[in-house]
Amino acid sequence: MTTLVQSVDWLAxxxxxxxxxxxxxxxxxxxxxxxxxxxxxxxxxxxGLALALLSLLPLLDGDRATFCVAKSGCSxxxxxxxxxxxxxxxxxxxxxxxxxxTAVREQRLPAGEYWxxxxxxxxxxxxxxxxxxxxxxxxxxxxxxxPSFALVGLRHGERRSAEAALKFFLSSVTATAVTLxxxxxxxxxxxxxxxxxxxxxxxxxxxQLRTLARVGVVLTLVGFAxxxxxxxxxxxxxxxxxxxxxxxxxxxxxxxxxxGFSGLALVTVRAFPSYGNVWGPALAVLAALTMTIGxxxxxxxxxxxxxxxxxxxxxSSVGQAGYLLVPLAxxxxxxxxxxxxxxxxxxxxxxxxxxxxxxxxxxLLARGRLADFQGLYARNPALALLLAFFLLxxxxxxxxxxxxxxxxxxxxxxxxxxxxxxxxxxxxxxAIALVYYLRWTASxxxxxxxxxTDAGDLPAAGGSTLTAVREKAPVREAAPALATGRPLALVTVxxxxxxxxxxxxxxxxxxxxxxxxxxx
Length: 520
Prior knowledge:
Layout: H1 14-32, H2 39-54, E1 64-69, E2 73-78, H3 80-106, H4 111-127, H5 134-152, H6 159-190, H7 195-202, H8 210-227, H9 237-243, H10 246-271, H11 276-299, H12 308-330, H13 337-365, H14 376-379, H15 381-395, H16 401-416, H17 420-443, E3 467-468, E4 480-481, H18 488-506, H19 509-512
């Protein structure tokens, strides 16, 4: 007789479980913490995320599975793939938390709610790569996404923030509904929600149910494609990034993408390998459209427009999502799908470090317009050099060798899979992206900066990120001004991201080895 009693390995589930427990502890502690001591909640959140990261160390000795049912499989597996994505997610959340201290203080965000929502989203994001059934995948996706809506709209009374949260919410709810319909179709076709059981059943599905299974496969991908900001599910990105607090935008650009790509990797390569002729071409077309539209929109950003720096990073993240989709599409055409997934993970790790560093640089300068970065080297050489290095990594140019080798891994995946046309499209888009990355980089070193705005001349030092300034644009379009002082947390994030980018550029094999690890 089949038993429904499930084994629980608490060490395996420690990373997401610890993050969730700290989130609840922060929420309860907020009720008893006086206003003057609210910063302690942020310190507790950072400590909790650091503890969750440390809990990954005992799991490095091998695969561990839990929540297992006989003849059905396990719902949670801490394998190499899950641990790599959890490292990316929890590390990104930790840097986001450090980036958030100044925002919470100066924008007067409700501290308890902010840290609770950030930790809750990080817990869902850490759960998703270890999920091995569709039910757990969908729950983890929603736990990672739902707190993000509130984080985007947490600046009470600001119309831009509310509009961004509403657009993010409506588009996400639609994508989730479509995904749930797809998973229902897959379950109806196979009679199982466990990924391994689905893979076995789809290989020999009833001919009368094949059309239903194909439709289910395509619809299931929609929710994860939305999280990756793949075209045509990308339209929420620029408004959401500019309307959200800057640390939240940085979080969505890195952790949100990690959630989407890990989900796509699991449902395609693990659950739907026999339907590669369905999702392979779909992802290849999505990759080509995403990188082309993202880079073209980034190229058209007006440097004098309020928030143009954040909007460029937003559209750049859409373009980068296209590159990340290339190896996933290639996995359908190769006999080494794990190698292709490894290329995506290697690229995602590089992108996480340099993109968080770019957002931290924008936050430290506290300027929303690209024009405000002109001549930055004359005022703050260290910050200008760091930002230039991050941009060159994103562009894939020396000395940003981390980005160069990560892009080479993407090209290799496409060529090995016989997708020559996709490799050509990727190469063209890399060339297009060079224009706006190099244009921004060059402006940092111009010796004749543009005249200052109404806020006055820029001080010599970088500083606090969130002091409002009046520009010639309407008040609701106002960009933040540069204040005095250098917040320690922002400097720490910049330093960590700079060291990571430098280490990955000096020794790119640190991440390229992922492409040779048997992740499944």
